[in-house]
Amino acid sequence: MVEIEYMAPASVEEAVKLLSVTDKPARIMAGGTDLIIQLKSQISHPHRVVDIKKIPQLQQTDLTTDELIIGPAQCCAELTARQDIKAVFPGLIESAYLIGSTQVQGRASIGGNLCNSSPAADTIPALIANAARCCITGAKGTREVPVEDFVTGVGRNCLEKDEILTAIKIKRPAPGTADAYLRMIPRTEMDIAVAGAGVSLTLDKDGSCTAARVAIGAVAPTALLVPAAAEALMGSRLDDDALEAAANAARDAAKPITDRRGTVEYRTHVVGVLVKRAAKIAAQRAKGN
Ligand SMILES: Cc1cc2nc3c(=O)[nH]c(=O)nc-3n(C[C@H](O)[C@H](O)[C@H](O)COP(=O)(O)OP(=O)(O)OC[C@H]3O[C@@H](n4cnc5c(N)ncnc54)[C@H](O)[C@@H]3O)c2cc1C
Fold first, then answer.
1. Of 75, 150, 144, 143, residue with least CA distance to 108
2. How confident is the model at residue 186 (pLDDT cuts 50, 70, 90)?
3. Sign of the dihedral through C-alpha 85, 33, 53, 57
4. Which pLDDT score, from 0 to 100, does residue 3 have?
5. Closest C-alpha residue for ligand 1 atom 39
6. What is the three-class DSSP state of 61?
7. In terms of DSSP H, where are the helices of the chain?
8. What's the distance, CA 276 to chain centroid?
9. Could you please report the per-residue DSSP string of 26-48?
């Protein structure tokens, strides 16, 4: 195990200072469910670990009349228990619920899932489908980044070394809008996705789709927003042709690899199936909104 200098600041300002003024490489820790594994297996030199779980602002999630403001360090167990949020963003809550076991849920956060920036992270396609924005604070000030631009590669994102993800914001959806997230795993318990799909769509009173966002995960180095899949759904009543066109657009956008969980061909096929199914679920839910 690597030598760790553990710090637990009480504010974002203090955390930024601890990240910027140090003679050792510094890492942020939220739940530690990714970080501790990485510190044990991939890192051999001394590190400063800045634990952000003691910062109240990062632990609190609010659903206001305008938007959802997710505290990025709040654990998934607390977040997924929020029935008020589930009623508005069922797909997002489903994606958080899929992370790990009960024990993992008690530590793991959506912010950590996003900042770990794995191609297979479950919450990222759901956040992209909901047009989430990432609020970031560092030594130079604050900025906001659309979630689809946050992750820049496998395990990489747009954060500078002294920057912290301080909130994830999502506008309250228009009436007639709902989301859904589905993933495929090769086992029945605790595995990561071979493919995932998040869909948010809006239906008018006649059941026609007036707005949509489709995102796919685990089939490219980063989760992808697929505008062509959304365009295939818009203007339709989610008939078979529109769903098939959306599935094919997702398959065209996918750039998967072959690994022990699935081949390129399998992942490409499955991601299309998931887009179709997630769109159908989102549409069913939207009819009730
Ligand atoms: C048994 C097991 C099963 C799992 N199953 C799944 C699964 O099914 N689906 C899935 O998607 N993931 C899964 N994971 C991965 C992991 O639990 C998630 O990625 C989790 O959401 C990470 O959150 P965390 O709070 O533990 O992050 P940490 O481990 O604390 O941090 C992860 C990374 O993000 C950085 N970071 C964290 N918060 C911030 C912040 N606010 N600002 C800047 N950087 C930050 C850290 O420096 C680190 O690099 C699993 C892990 C385990 C151990």
1. 75
2. confident
3. negative
4. 85
5. 112
6. coil
7. 12-20, 35-41, 76-80, 83-88, 90-97, 102-105, 110-116, 123-129, 147-150, 227-233, 240-253, 264-287
8. 20
9. EEEESS-TTHHHHHHHT--S-EE
Separation CA 125–CA 105 (nearest Å): 19
Backbone angles phi, psi at 152, to 5 degrees: -110, -10
Q: Is there a contact between 79 and 98 (Cβ–Cβ < 8 Å)?
A: no
Q: What is the pLDDT of residues 223-272, one digit of tens each?
A: 999 999 999 999 999 999 999 999 999 999 999 999 988 899 999 999 99
Dihedral angle sign, alpha carbons of residues 262, 268, 273, 275: positive
In 3D, which of 280, 77, 101 has the Cα closest to residue 188?
Answer: 101
Ligand 1 binding residues, C-beta < 6 A: 27-35, 52, 72-73, 98-100, 104, 107-109, 111-113, 115-116, 121-122, 159, 164-165, 190, 192
CA atoms within 13 A on the CB side of 46: 6
pLDDT of residue 1: 61
Of 234, 244, 129, 228, residue with least CA distance to 180 = 129
Cα 65 to chain centroid, rounded: 22
